[in-house]
Specification:
heterodimer; A: about 240 residues; mainly alpha; Cytochrome Bc1 Complex, Chain D, domain 2; two-stranded antiparallel sheet; 10 helices; 2 strands; B: about 500 residues; Cytochrome C Oxidase, Chain A; 16 helices; globular
């Protein structure tokens, strides 16, 4: 209210200078007095009910210690490496768990049950190639295998053989998968550790796939190396 | 302040002179902000095109680190938020606050220029350091940590005269709806910006909670700065152009206070199921959904105010942009509710949908309202009319289609991406493959940013010509429809 309209008289120069845009503007008006429609109140209640559903159980009883509302507030953090259980993480169980997901790559040919497909892909379950010497097993997966082979008395000759899968995997992943296949479907054999895989990798840098004859010298050899103590070392190193 | 119709010719003239004086007093700072903001908008949309292209063709323009997605995307969003959004928002806030309060900007114009220059220098340095690898990796706070005090101080320099103007104004009950929102934005931005920066840059590392605070900041900036400025602008310009009063004072109050109470609680729902105390995401999900209330109430109020005047949406550039912007507000609210509540959020979290939310709120909703305001304000400050109807139409349609395309494709891509990642049947698909499936949507996003770039080139040229005083010398406003040329349209602009 800087200018009092009643005794203010703009001179003609002021008015001429005004840009037309200012002159054609409409008045500012006092807002209307429409009441809030009933529908708005009803819909607001619907929204409030849906929104309220986001509270309740989901708040974890407003406890700062609870990040997962579906565990009782008193349960400890379930992740390995947390809480009192930290010391008892079992390297063998970890390798089996991670190996199981890594096995997705192998399962395409050797199948989820490790039985392979008769006449096409050799089985892993009960295979002497799998539970035998670790040296040969690591080499097969690391560098691939081609040509006719005999597994559990059956002969296989898959065209193209098996690729060198290990080349694209980390030593840890490869070790986990090998530990998994050596201890699944009734197989029982020692763990294969990351260090063992690395040792084979540094010793052997070939790019062609192996043949059965080339691998014969390694059939019963085990890669030397420590197997972690504790519950994971289910079998002593042979 | 003229609330009732002026009783005489002389009063109308006195009121005209008074409004012209107010315009003149804020002319410099407001045009400075608009022009710089328009340049940043241009930069941001070009960066948006590049960032989107990088998503489906990572080796585009060579492999140098300077233009990798990880640097382009934050540069694009920071230019949009700080270069364009807040800067243009301040211009609109200052003009509306001065006009609505009936107060001239009496002194301190030079310090406003200084603050504006500092703001732009700080944003420039911030973006350069993002592009050269100084990204702090905190969303919307990627600029190095020494930038924020400069931005905060510059903002306060602008907020101060606005608060003073509001304080001095004659404030009849229920009359100041648009300036409530603007006053709110003057206080809310410093609050969230200071809190987020102190927590994230000054306190020793907060771990997972820092991510939650960061998400809270992004939602706060959208809901407590961009939304209030855009709503305030719409509450000012819709009645101004239609000549109808705001439909309901009760709805305005309800909308304002529910937004003010709820908005500050949202954000952490982004990390639902994450390593935060469960009640934090839960409260975010609760308020994020409950925000449908202010969104619906404000939308209804604007709808009732525009009702019966829809022919003006076709003719007045200001009303057309503001109308579309206000239409995008409910869209923003619904997308926020979808992202926030547990049943749909579990699919949409961490997907392209969150980018869609940021763009619909900052561009579709806020920027469209601000464009409308700019089309109204600039002729009054420069004393000339917009040059070309065709340029305005170009700007409107290319922006509209561009934004709509970005929002729709981001949402659909988000639903697909999140659905696939959560689907137990997809256990044997690797993450890369699922990301690759979103490729067509990313191509669409690049094209959409291309459309928006095209629209902004013309907006920028148009604005530069206006500010240079090269607009039309005419007393007739630039209106969008030529089919009714015989009817007088003078009142519509």
């Amino acid at each position: 209210m800087s200018a009092n309209p009643s005794n203010y008289s703009p001179d003609s120069i002021d008015l001429d200078r005004l840009h037309a845009a200012v002159k054609r503007e409409k008045q500012d008006l006092q807002p209307g007095r429409e009441p809030v429609p009933m529908l708005v109140i009803f819909l607001a209640m619907v929204v409030a009910v849906i929104a309220g559903g986001q509270l309740g159980l989901m708040t974890g009883e407003w406890n700062f210690e609870t990040s997962n509302p579906f565990l009782a507030a008193s349960s400890p953090d379930p992740r390995p490496g947390a809480g009192e259980g930290a010391a008892s993480v079992d390297p063998f169980q970890t390798a089996m768990k991670k190996g199981a997901s890594g096995y997705a790559v192998c399962g395409g040919c050797h199948q989820g049950n490790g039985m392979g497909i008769p006449g096409q892909f050799p089985p892993l379950a009960g295979s002497e190639w799998v539970v035998g010497g670790t040296e040969r097993l690591i080499r097969v997966v690391q560098h691939g295998l081609v040509g006719a082979i005999t597994v559990k008395g059956q002969s296989y000759n898959t065209p193209g053989g098996m690729q060198a899968f290990g080349a694209a995997m980390s030593a840890t992943d490869l070790a986990n998968v090998l530990t998994y296949i050596r201890n699944s479907w009734g197989n029982e054999a020692t763990m294969i550790t990351k260090e063992m895989v690395e040792k084979v990798r540094t010793e052997e840098k070939r790019v062609q796939q192996w043949t059965e004859a080339e691998l014969a010298p390694f059939a019963d050899k085990n890669v030397p190396g420590d197997i972690p103590a504790g519950p994971g070392a289910t079998k002593p190193a042979a | 302040m003229q609330i009732n119709s002026p009783s005489s010719e002389i009063e109308t003239q006195a009121d005209n002179v008074r409004r012209a004086t107010i315009d003149k007093s804020v002319k410099g700072p407001v045009l400075f902000l608009f022009l710089n903001a328009a340049f940043w908008l241009m930069a941001s949309t070009i960066l948006g095109v590049l960032a989107a292209v990088k998503l489906f063709s990572p080796s585009f323009l060579g492999d140098c680190a300077f233009i990798t997605f990880g640097r382009l995307q934050p540069a694009h969003l920071n230019a949009l938020v700080y270069g364009w959004g807040i800067q243009a928002g301040l211009g609109v806030m200052l003009w509306i606050m001065a006009r609505r309060s009936g107060q001239e900007l009496r002194n301190g114009r030079s310090i406003l220029y200084v603050a504006g220059v500092f703001w732009n220098i700080a944003v420039t340095l911030g973006l350069v350091s993002i592009l050269t690898g100084g990204n702090t990796s905190m969303q919307w706070l990627e600029m190095p940590s020494w930038i924020w005090p400069i931005l905060l101080l510059s903002f306060l320099v602008y907020a101060w005269p606005m608060v003073i103007m509001f304080g001095k104004a004659f404030r009849p009950e229920g009359f100041m709806v648009s300036t409530w929102y603007i006053l709110g934005a003057c206080f809310w931005f410093p609050w969230i910006y200071l809190t987020a920066n102190v927590c994230l840059n000054c306190l020793p590392s907060l771990g997972a909670l820092a991510a939650g605070i960061n998400a809270w900041f992004v939602h706060g900036l959208i809901l407590l700065f961009f939304a209030p400025v855009a709503i305030g602008s719409a509450y000012y310009f819709i009645p101004k152009i239609t000549g109808k009063p705001i439909a309901s004072a009760d709805l305005s109050k309800l909308g304002f206070w529910s937004l003010a109470f709820l908005a500050g609680w949202t954000g952490m729902q982004v990390y639902m199921g994450g390593p935060l105390p469960a009640w934090m995401p839960s409260i975010g999900a609760f308020t994020g959904t409950l925000l449908l209330l202010p969104v619906g109430v404000v939308g209804l109020n604007h709808h009732l105010t525009t009702l019966g005047k829809h022919d003006m949406v076709a003719t007045s550039p200001t009303l057309r942009f503001t109308f579309l912007g206000s239409l995008f507000f409910p869209v923003t609210g619904v997308i926020l509710a979808l992202l926030s509540n547990y049943s749909t959020g579990v699919t949409l979290q961490f997907t392209h949908a969150s980018y869609g939310f940021q763009i619909v709120s900052v561009y579709g909703f806020f920027s469209m309202c601000v464009f409308g305001a700019i089309y109204y304000i600039v002729p009054r400050l420069t004393g000339c009319e917009w040059l070309s109807v065709r340029l305005i139409r170009n700007h409107f349609w290319f922006s509209t289609y561009g934004i709509a395309a970005i929002v729709v494709t981001s949402l659909v891509a988000g639903i697909q991406q999140g659905g696939d990642l959560n689907n137990p049947e997809m256990w044997d698909q690797d993450f890369m493959q699922l990301s690759m499936n979103a490729r067509p949507y990313m191509i669409a996003r690049a094209l959409a940013w291309g459309l928006i770039t095209w629209s902004n080139i013309w907006f920028l040229i148009h604005l530069v010509l206006m500010v240079a005083g090269l607009g039309r010398r005419s007393s007739a406003p630039t209106l969008l429809h030529s089919s009714h040329d015989d009817t007088p349209h003078a009142a519509h602009a």
